[in-house]
């Protein structure tokens, strides 16, 4: 009888110990998973907290016509998230002394327009240059206002090519491999596979395959990656591996205020966006390439990285609706970060 009681107690103790060893999913990951499950979201989400994945989830299809399910490793066009990568490539040359940020672009590029002597690399990084066409006059006086520009980042890539004597494809590919970003690609690279198809959802809920997703300037909006590489990108960038901390602070410094279609007024650094005074709360970028809807943000106060990649674009008449799931996920993380920072 005594032996029986001992065995029962031992069994109960083992059960308690077993369940005590099972890690419960962090609250943020649970809430994000609930948002994804209860939405039309078609893509992949990764949440990393203290450099450990707390959520990695794929939902929907890589190919809607053939009903091919998405994999968490699938590749997406990352849109304007590309800009911070191009910015880092420029800033690495700045750290080497190959360029200075206030060099006029005429030092590197042979352009016919006289404004090339007054526009600097800094102006290109911050969209304050006024260039609308390399063969036309400026839209405004250099440095006087912000105007989002894909062309400006293409010119930054041209400067990199001049300085390094290589194509932007060669420069970016070498950089990705050196830093372990094995699933991040220039679209001209022929070695990648698993790039998902992008779709526009029509008003009748049908889907149209978008064929122009890679037609943007590559340095500004057409690089290719997946959620795990972008999470690694955040880890490397914000830990001072890709550029030193002093240079990282330059990236997170306000140089212009942008009227963002989703956030309203936000500050713009070098390829990174943040609210006034909150660069250490929430910093990163959205990305849009035709049919590809992306977000890559970092929350320093809670050491959390959020990457959301979607290959179905809806409600394009209102980008707030297009990015609704991304924004809702980010709002949860920001709330936690603000609470931690005491703001």
Word description of this protein:
The N and C termini lie far apart (61 Å). The protein is an alpha+beta fold and 343 residues long. The protein is 36% helix and 19% strand. The radius of gyration is 23 Å and the shape is globular.
Quick tags:
globular; 5-stranded antiparallel beta sheet; 36% helix; 15 strands; 11 helices; single chain
In short:
The protein is of the alpha+beta class and 343 residues long. Helix content is 36%, strand content 19%.
Q: What is the percent of helical residues?
A: 25-40%
Number of helices: 11
Number of E-type strands: 15
Order of helices and strands: HHEEEEEHHHHEEHEHHEEEEEEEHH
Q: Order of strands side by side in the largest beta sheet?
A: 2-1-14-13-12
Shape: globular
Low-confidence stretches: 1-23
Mean pLDDT: 92
Q: What radius of gyration results from the CA coordinates?
A: 23 Å
Helices, strands, pairings?
Elements: H1 2-21, H2 27-37, E1 43-49, E2 52-59, E3 61-63, E4 68-69, E5 76-77, H3 82-96, H4 121-126, H5 150-164, H6 168-178, E6 199-201, E7 207-209, H7 218-221, E8 224-225, H8 227-238, H9 245-251, E9 256-260, E10 264-268, E11 273-274, E12 283-289, E13 292-299, E14 304-310, E15 312-313, H10 319-322, H11 324-341
């Amino acid at each position: 009888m005594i032996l029986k009681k001992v065995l029962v107690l031992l069994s109960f103790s083992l059960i308690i110990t077993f369940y005590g060893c099972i890690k419960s999913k962090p609250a943020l990951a649970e809430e994000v998973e609930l948002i994804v499950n209860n939405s039309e979201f078609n893509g992949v989400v990764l949440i990393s907290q203290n450099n450990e994945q707390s959520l990695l989830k794929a939902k929907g299809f890589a190919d809607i016509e053939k009903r091919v399910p998405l994999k968490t490793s699938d590749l997406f066009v990352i849109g304007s998230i590309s800009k911070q990568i191009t910015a880092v490539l420029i800033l690495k040359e700045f750290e080497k002394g190959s360029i200075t940020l206030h060099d006029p672009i005429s030092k590197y590029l042979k352009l016919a327009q006289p404004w090339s002597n007054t526009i600097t690399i800094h102006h290109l990084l911050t969209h304050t240059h006024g260039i609308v066409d390399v063969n036309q006059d400026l839209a405004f006086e250099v440095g006087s206002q912000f105007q989002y520009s894909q062309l400006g980042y293409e010119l930054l890539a041209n400067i990199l090519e001049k300085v390094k004597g290589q194509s932007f494809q060669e420069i970016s590919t070498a950089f990705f491999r050196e830093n372990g970003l094995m699933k991040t690609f220039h679209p001209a690279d022929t070695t990648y596979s698993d790039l998902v198809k992008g779709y526009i959802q029509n008003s009748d809920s049908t889907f149209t395959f978008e064929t122009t997703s890679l037609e943007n300037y590559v340095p500004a909006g057409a690089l290719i990656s997946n959620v795990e590489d972008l999470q690694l990108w955040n880890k490397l960038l914000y830990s001072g591996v890709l550029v030193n901390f002093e240079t990282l602070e330059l990236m997170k410094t306000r140089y212009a205020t942008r009227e963002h279609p989703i956030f309203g007024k936000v500050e713009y650094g070098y390829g990174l966006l943040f609210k006034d005074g909150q660069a250490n709360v929430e910093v990163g970028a959205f990305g849009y390439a035709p049919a590809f809807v992306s977000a890559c943000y970092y929350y320093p106060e809670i050491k959390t990285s959020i990457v959301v990649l979607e290959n179905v674009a809806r409600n394009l008449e209102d980008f707030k609706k297009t990015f609704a799931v991304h924004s809702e996920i980010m709002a949860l993380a920001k709330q936690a970060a603000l609470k931690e920072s005491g703001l």
